């Protein structure tokens, strides 16, 4: 695991360079083709949106990137390392963190514990030290706790630090989930519909956090979103999928003018 | 009227008039409870980390006990046999993770439960194949466990007899529980275990390796099984009959909550003491032998009022 990480560190590209390159990815489940020959890239420091109608293959794409799905064809190049299949924890170790469409938090744990869990890969002490919970294990615990508190401050969720997340309202759960992903200090943050089901005010908060993460931490972000207004405001570049195919790629204004994209969203008369 | 007196008066009169006997019953119940708690602890470990009710915990107790005794019978010194048995339990954990758990990632809980039932049957077969079906004597003395007993005088003419092995069992159980409690609540691996229990996908996404966690947790459950096998084997024999006793862990878990280590202990003690006292003082009213089902009755009543158990995590489902 650490080998993967070391390699990732040494080949760290500079801002503006390509961080992730998706090359001719095809994914099918039995006879259903979820993704057909899709290629695009994500550059360092940008906010990249993936949009498309329901069933376009957006979430499948994220799942391929972070190793939940293994595509039949194509390769993914992340931070200079090319691979097709990767295990999810290896993807995490190489610096990819994510959130889920339907919040996937550790419901029995407090907000704080959830966020510290996000730092799993930054904690290295062995089984035995952990067992006696002393010396290096304790120092490490304190250091990581401090990091987690910084993220809690950043996301303005101090008041729910100790609350089991299962009891939190949906909007806050989404925020905690973002916090858990941030805690990993990822190179690439994948957000699967970070604003789904939120009201206007919550959406505005979340948009602000996403922009702050991008500008303050310099984190590269790929996000799936349905609210076109949000997409246009947040993202630097947009890739559009429809029925598993890429039908558009470019800046928000380019994509908005693309006839294929308009057809896919509004329907086309035959 | 006679029945009411039998239920509400006579047992308490007996308790007060023969306090030394009452204490002896309490002690027996306590020791039984500690052993139930140890078995329940094995269940809790695996349930916490994988959401799987490990039906095979009972047979793991037997298997660990048989391995230890079997190795010693074949001329391996006791302590070396103990270390080798720990190794065997580690190997078992790795194999279970590789060949049972890993192919079933993200499957429904019921499928994993079925898999552990399959594992139980497999281990029964393997155990009988290697060690034979006859009960074996636990190598209590060879392991340096105390065997004598102490008598404590109660009042003027009462006596309370404590078996040393029982005291040792209690001490070992309490130590294990303390270590595991800290481990689960305060450390990275403990947190990872809980994370895996809550959500496989989310756990993977933060970089937790399910394979590693499962191997660790099955190994820990194997160690607990070994301790249980030694302690229980020292009181009776090591035989496949022990596997059935492991089912007593069910009411303990219902009482204590499937995810709580302290719950396993408190639940174990309530069941252990409750069934002993029930058997001795109220059993004769029903012709005796109520010990075998009283635990389940206690659990059933409990289930009505506190389904998550005494210490279980109350998870609110949002619809």
Question: Could you describe the 3D structure shown?
Answer:
The complex is a heterodimer of chains A (about 270) and B (about 325). Chain A is α/β, with parallel strands linked by helices and about 270 residues long. Chain A folds into two domains: about 180 residues, Rossmann fold (3-Layer(aba) Sandwich), CATH 3.40.50.300; about 80 residues, Rossmann fold. Chain A is built from eleven helices and ten strands. In chain A, the strands form two sheets. Chain A has a six-stranded mixed sheet with strand order 6-7-8-3-9-10, sandwiched between helices. A four-stranded antiparallel sheet of chain A has the order 2-1-4-5, with helices on one face. In chain A, helix 4 runs parallel beside helix 7 and helix 6 packs across helix 7. The N and C termini of chain A lie far apart (about 55 Å). The N terminus of chain A is likely disordered. With about 325 residues, chain B is mainly alpha-helical. Chain B has a domain of about 210 residues. Chain B is about 70% helix and about 5% strand. Chain B has a two-stranded antiparallel ribbon. In chain B, helix 3 packs parallel to helix 7 and helix 7 packs antiparallel against helix 10. The longest helix of chain B has about 30 residues. Chain B is globular. The model of chain B has no long low-confidence stretch (mean pLDDT about 85). Chains A and B meet through helix 3, helix 4, helix 5, helix 6 and helix 7 of A and helix 7, helix 8 and helix 9 of B.
């Amino acid at each position: 695991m650490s080998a993967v990480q070391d390699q990732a560190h040494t080949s760290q590209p500079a801002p503006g360079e390509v961080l992730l390159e998706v090359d001719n990815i095809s994914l099918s489940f039995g006879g259903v083709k979820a993704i057909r020959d899709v290629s695009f890239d994500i550059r360092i420091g940008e906010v990249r949106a993936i949009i498309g109608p329901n069933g376009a293959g957006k979430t499948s794409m994220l799942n391929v990137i972070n190793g939940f799905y293994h595509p039949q064809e194509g390769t993914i190049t992340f931070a200079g390392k090319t691979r097709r299949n990767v295990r999810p924890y290896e993807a995490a170790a190489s610096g990819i963190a994510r959130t889920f469409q339907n919040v996937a938090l550790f419901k029995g744990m407090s907000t704080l514990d959830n966020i510290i869990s996000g730092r799993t890969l930054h904690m290295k002490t062995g089984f035995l030290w952990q067992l006696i919970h002393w010396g290096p294990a304790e120092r490490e615990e304190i250091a990581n706790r401090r990091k987690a508190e910084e993220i809690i401050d950043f996301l303005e969720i101090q008041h729910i630090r100790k609350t089991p997340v299962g009891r939190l309202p949906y909007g806050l759960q989404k925020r905690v989930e973002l916090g858990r992903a941030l805690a990993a200090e990822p190179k690439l943050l994948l957000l699967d519909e970070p604003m789904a089901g939120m009201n206007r005010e919550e959406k505005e908060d979340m948009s602000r956090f996403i922009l702050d993460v991008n500008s303050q931490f310099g984190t590269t972000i790929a996000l799936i979103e349905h609210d076109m207004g949000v997409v246009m405001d947040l993202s630097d570049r947009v890739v559009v999928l429809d029925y598993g195919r890429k039908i558009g790629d470019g800046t928000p204004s380019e994509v908005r003018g693309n006839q294929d994209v308009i057809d896919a969203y509004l329907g086309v008369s035959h | 009227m006679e029945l009411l007196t039998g239920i509400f008066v006579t047992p308490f009169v007996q308790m007060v008039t023969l306090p030394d006997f009452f204490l002896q019953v309490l002690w027996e119940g306590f020791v039984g409870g500690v052993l139930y708690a140890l078995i329940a602890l094995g269940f809790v470990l695996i349930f916490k980390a994988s959401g799987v009710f490990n039906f095979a915990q009972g047979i793991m107790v037997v298997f660990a006990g048989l391995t230890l005794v079997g190795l010693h019978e074949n001329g391996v010194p006791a302590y070396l046999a103990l270390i080798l048995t720990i190794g065997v339990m580690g190997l078992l954990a790795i194999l279970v993770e590789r060949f049972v758990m890993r192919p079933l990632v993200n499957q429904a809980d019921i499928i994993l439960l079925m898999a552990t039932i399959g594992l139980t049957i497999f281990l029964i077969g393997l155990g009988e194949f290697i060690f034979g079906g006859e009960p074996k004597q636990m190598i209590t003395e060879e392991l340096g466990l105390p065997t004598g007993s102490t008598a404590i005088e109660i009042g003027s003419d009462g006596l309370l007899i404590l078996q040393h092995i029982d005291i040792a069992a209690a001490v070992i159980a309490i130590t294990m529980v303390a270590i595991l409690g800290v481990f689960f609540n305060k450390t990275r691996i403990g947190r990872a275990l809980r994370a895996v229990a809550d959500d496989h996908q989310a756990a993977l996404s933060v970089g937790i390796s399910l394979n590693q966690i499962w191997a660790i947790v099955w190994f820990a459950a194997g160690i607990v099984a070994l301790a249980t096998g030694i302690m229980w084997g020292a009181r009776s024999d090591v035989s496949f009959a022990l596997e059935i006793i492991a089912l007593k862990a069910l009411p303990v878990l219902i009482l204590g909550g499937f995810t709580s280590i302290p719950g396993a202990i408190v639940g174990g003690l309530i069941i252990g003491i409750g069934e002993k006292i029930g058997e001795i003082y109220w059993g004769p009213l029903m012709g005796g032998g109520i010990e075998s089902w009283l635990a389940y009755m206690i659990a059933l009543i409990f289930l009505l009022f506190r389904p998550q158990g005494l210490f279980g995590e109350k998870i609110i489902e949002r619809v």
